């Protein structure tokens, strides 16, 4: 999928304004518990390495993993080992009814006498929400200590969100495309619709389509303003369940901006020089690329925009391109004949990057 349009760079300072959530929608994404209280009759040993100081368990239902940690009273002697078990369960008057037992055997602890494991979560045990936790230490083939306490749910806000890829600035008197980043938090959706409104500004509605859980995709929004103004643009994104958890107003500035094309030649971003591109004699931007550190999971430190960008008479352009599960967004604005402001966006299902730059002509 590819969308083309004229765009002015968004390089003014952005201000995040307080959002009034009409409907916050928390979704349970896991459970966690930390225990330090010894169970009745515990510890049943006096050696420090057979005594528990602290235990914890975190269950991530989205990643299907569990992370258990425990701190012992001292290091494990050479030739010895311990088994630590984490038992999440349902609290009843008669005790903590187990849902499952998760266990690891270790013979070495870290400098703080701690151990920690992250493992795949066995399927099917979370038919109920765990409300209690027992962490038990076994040494010399016997239970030597146990800690007990509560587990609580971990909740995150769910729903779609639209936000500017960079500070919002539009040209007075003509439609100005800008890059937005659309994220579907916690859950995936088959459709996202984005709208924007504010005093003295107008934005065309955007039909984004499906977005995976926690994925971010760039889109081009077209905004117009009849006159010079400092205003606010209230961005709303609606998913299949019409969640409004992330409705947000953003500062937007409308200014008189002269339309012009940049001079042909090679351009490099000022400062670190991480962004490079070439403007051809027929007003195309080719080999737009960055060597800046990318987001985690991007599998590399370089990314190149996969297609050429045409610069119209206005000297401004914006484009979004999708290649498989990867999304690319680019916007450029000519401020002077040899000076271009821009933004570069790169996202995958697991990461996102939004880079703003000012590039000057080298040759």
Q: Poorly predicted ranges (pLDDT <50, ≥5 residues)?
A: 1-22
Radius of gyration: 27 Å
Mean pLDDT: 88
Distance between the termini: 34 Å
Total helical elements: 0
Helix content: under 10%
- Give the overall form: elongated
What does the model show?
- The chain has 363 residues and is mostly beta strands.
- Helices cover 0% and strands 58% of the residues.
- The strands form four sheets. Strands 1, 22, 23, 24, 25, 26, 27, 28, 29 and 30 form a ten-stranded antiparallel beta sheet that branches. Strands 13, 14, 15, 16, 17, 18, 19, 20 and 21 form a nine-stranded mixed beta sheet that branches. Strands 3, 6, 7, 8, 10 and 11 form a six-stranded antiparallel beta sheet that branches.
- β16 and β17 form a beta hairpin.
- The two termini are 34 Å apart.
- The relative contact order is 0.17.
- Mean pLDDT is 88; it is low at 1-22.
Notable traits:
363 residues, mainly beta, 10-stranded antiparallel β-sheet, 9-stranded mixed β-sheet, 0% helix, elongated, disordered N terminus
Per-chain topology:
Blueprint: E1 2-5, E2 26-35, E3 37-38, E4 52-60, E5 65-72, E6 82-92, E7 95-98, E8 102-106, E9 114-120, E10 132-139, E11 142-150, E12 152-157, E13 159-164, E14 168-171, E15 176-185, E16 189-198, E17 201-203, E18 206-211, E19 216-224, E20 229-238, E21 248-255, E22 265-269, E23 275-279, E24 284-290, E25 303-304, E26 309-310, E27 316-323, E28 326-336, E29 339-348, E30 351-361
Parallel strand pairs: 14-21
Antiparallel strand pairs: 1-27, 2-4, 2-12, 3-11, 4-5, 5-9, 6-7, 6-8, 6-10, 10-11, 13-15, 15-19, 16-17, 16-18, 16-20, 17-19, 20-21, 22-23, 22-30, 23-24, 24-25, 24-26, 27-28, 28-29, 29-30
Keywords: Signal
Signal peptide: 1-24
